[in-house]
From TrEMBL:
Residues 427-461 are annotated as: Disordered. SUPFAM superfamilies: FAD/NAD(P)-binding domain. InterPro entries: BFD-like_2Fe2S-bd_dom, BFD-like_2Fe2S-bd_dom_sf, FAD/NAD-bd_sf, FAD/NAD-binding_dom, Metab_Enz_Cyan_OpOx_G3PDH, Opine_Oxase_asu/HCN_bsu. It comes from the Bacteria. Pfam families: Fer2_BFD, Pyr_redox_2. One of its GO terms (molecular function) is oxidoreductase activity. It comes from Shimia litoralis. This is FAD-dependent oxidoreductase. Residues 5-315 form the FAD/NAD(P)-binding domain. Gene3D superfamilies: BFD-like [2Fe-2S]-binding domain, FAD/NAD(P)-binding domain. The keyword Nucleotide-binding does not apply. Keywords: Oxidoreductase. The keyword Kinase does not apply. The lineage of its organism: Bacteria, Pseudomonadati, Pseudomonadota, Alphaproteobacteria, Rhodobacterales.
Length: 461
């Protein structure tokens, strides 16, 4: 492949925004993304849905401008490309069409986005129980609408999906929400700052109003989730809400407890991470411009800290401007002047996060579920088995992995790391458990690809 100046991993709002600014500044940009079309999770298939699926809303349709900006002679977009290694140089190794290759660039931007937080409870692995975000992906890619569905968990995404289902003529059967009145009350000190993001607050209130107008039942302060299957193949969902035991029968149970940064590639790259207590997750260290402690590596978007689509696009713009400055295409003064709009937009977009983090925290019985709950879906390891291993002296992710294979399946810990951390932290001080080390390949690849690949070139001493 021809030499490029910047490699961007991820074609979500952060990656697309950074690519457009870098390309307009004269850099040759290569974007690598696993999906068949650009847009990331929030704007998935947005260009293909221009004239249809209006129930997804105006905020979703706004992503078309970012996708259209990729039509630039200095941008090469490769979809269906899975990045599985990142070396110093920096050098990116990626797989596409069952073939792997390594590409070097002076700069690499990691814009890999977020993942849904696991929501483990007895029965969460049953057919018909799935993350709410996964159901939204099906709505965007295939037009498949959830029917006879219950939404369970907490966070703004539940309201958005419920409103989209209502607009599509398939309203949810009920919303089962875990947030409590004391939690909402504790979030009120953050409201003055949240007013800087007033349009987002108004949007959230309008979603709740739409749900109420549609007469969708809402259960709050819910806990003790439990799912089983009925003889007819439906889901029997049990929980406790407002001091009473409740049962709902549904065809589909969609769960959500917020999102956390996807950090496998940033950890594998050796970037320093810190614990964000408010969001209950690790995220990579970076400065205002997204620059990390590793030479040539920047981060932007939800993979660098949860902020939402608008914040991601602004952070991508700042990273793109900084990379132009480091490449000698912009002076630092010009960079700073051009960054004023993006910095203001980033501040407004992030202003509401402290309120949301305080109002919709994941409950304790989700962070550290009961013993009979499967934690590692790949290896079918239960919370009880993990607690037993801890009592027998296992400490940290590595020893749990060695003794129980927890985190050694195809997902490489993406679906269990957060829950394992909660179990390891039970009964201990608030000091967070260090994140597990991530190793290459960070995504599964065929052995044939690995064998056929030439080793990365070492930098001269």
């Amino acid at each position: 492949m021809a030499e490029v100046d910047l490699i961007i991993i991820g074609a979500g709002p952060a990656g697309m925004s950074a690519a457009a600014f870098a390309a307009r500044g004269g850099l040759q940009v290569l974007i690598l993304d696993e999906q068949p079309h650009p847009g990331g999770q929030i704007y998935r298939n947005v260009a293909q849905n221009r004239s249809k699926r209006g129930f997804l809303g105006q905020a979703y349709a706004a992503g078309t401008d970012l996708v259209d900006a990729l039509d630039h002679p200095h941008i090469t977009l490769l979809t269906g490309a899975t990045v599985w290694r990142l070396d110093k140089g920096p050098q990116v190794t990626w797989s596409r069409g069952a073939k792997s290759q390594t590409t070097s660039a002076a700069h690499v931007l990691l814009a890999t986005g977020a993942q849904e937080r696991p929501v483990p409870f007895p029965g969460w692995t049953l057919p018909g129980v799935m993350p709410a975000g996964a159901a939204q992906i099906l709505m965007k890619t295939a037009g498949m609408l959830p029917k006879d569905a219950v939404l369970a968990g907490s966070g703004p995404l539940l309201y958005l999906i419920a409103a989209q289902m209502i607009d599509a003529g398939s309203p949810p059967q009920a919303l089962v929400e875990t947030q409590t009145f004391p939690q909402m009350l504790s979030a009120t000190p953050h409201l003055p700052r949240a007013l800087f993001g007033l349009p987002t607050l108004r949007k959230g209130l309008s979603l709740i109003a739409k749900i109420r107008k549609a007469a969708v039942p809402r259960y709050t302060a819910a806990s003790g989730f439990h799912a089983t299957t009925t003889e007819s193949g439906n889901i029997l969902f049990s929980f406790r809400a407002n001091g009473r035991d409740q049962r709902l029968t549904c065809g589909l149970l969609l769960t959500h407890q917020g999102v956390i940064p996807g950090t496998h590639i940033t950890r594998a790259a050796g970037i320093e991470h810190y614990w964000n207590a408010a969001q209950g997750a690790f995220q990579p260290e970076h400065d205002l411009w997204g620059a990390t402690d590793q030479p040539g590596l920047h981060v932007a978007g939800d993979g660098a800290g949860i902020g939402g689509a608008e914040a991601a696009a602004s952070a991508g713009e700042l990273a793109g401007l900084n990379i132009l400055c480091q490449s000698g295409r912009l002076s630092s003064d010009t960079r700073n002047q051009r960054a004023a709009r993006a910095r203001a937009a980033l501040f407004r977009a992030r202003a509401i996060r402290p309120f949301l983090d305080a109002a919709y925290p994941p409950p304790t019985d989700i962070l550290a579920p009961s013993d009979n709950t499967i934690v590692c879906r790949c290896e079918e390891v239960s919370a009880g088995a993990i607690r037993q291993a801890i009592r027998e002296g296992a400490q940290g992710h590595r020893q749990i992995k060695t003794s129980l294979r927890c985190g050694m399946g195809p997902c490489q810990g993406r679906m269990c790391d957060a829950t394992l951390r909660g179990l390891l932290s039970e009964g201990k001080a608030s000091q967070p458990i260090s994140p597990p080390r991530a190793r290459s390949p960070i995504k599964p690849i065929a052995l044939g690809e690995l064998a056929a690949l030439s080793p990365p070139q070492e930098e001269p001493a």
